[in-house]
Amino acid sequence: MGLNGISIILIICYLIGEVIKKFSKEKLNNYIPLILMLLGGILGILIYVTNKELMIGVCNIYEALIIGLIGGSGSTGTNQIIKQLLKIKEEKKNETNS
After folding, report:
1. Are 74 and 20 spatial neighbours (Cβ–Cβ below 8 Å)?
2. I want to staple 28 with a disulfide (CB 3.0 to 4.6 A). Which of 24, 36, 63, 88 is the partner?
3. Closest C-alpha to 48, from 30, 35, 60, 66
């Protein structure tokens, strides 16, 4: 899959995950990774069906589904990377103020 297609899936899923986290109840937060993975799969299929140029090297709809699932799951990992980086910056800021 081209970098464009996977990037689109990852960004959309990340943003939707942030919206779900912001406006949902605490119980739904446990299901955000699953929701984003399924959403990524759906987006992978939609991108494959509507704009195959973004899906370089994908031969069929099943490959698009798998790549979408991986992209959706990757958005959860992206969230954790950002969260941990912000946590480290906050800890350093607190250490210098102490």
Report:
1. no
2. 24
3. 60
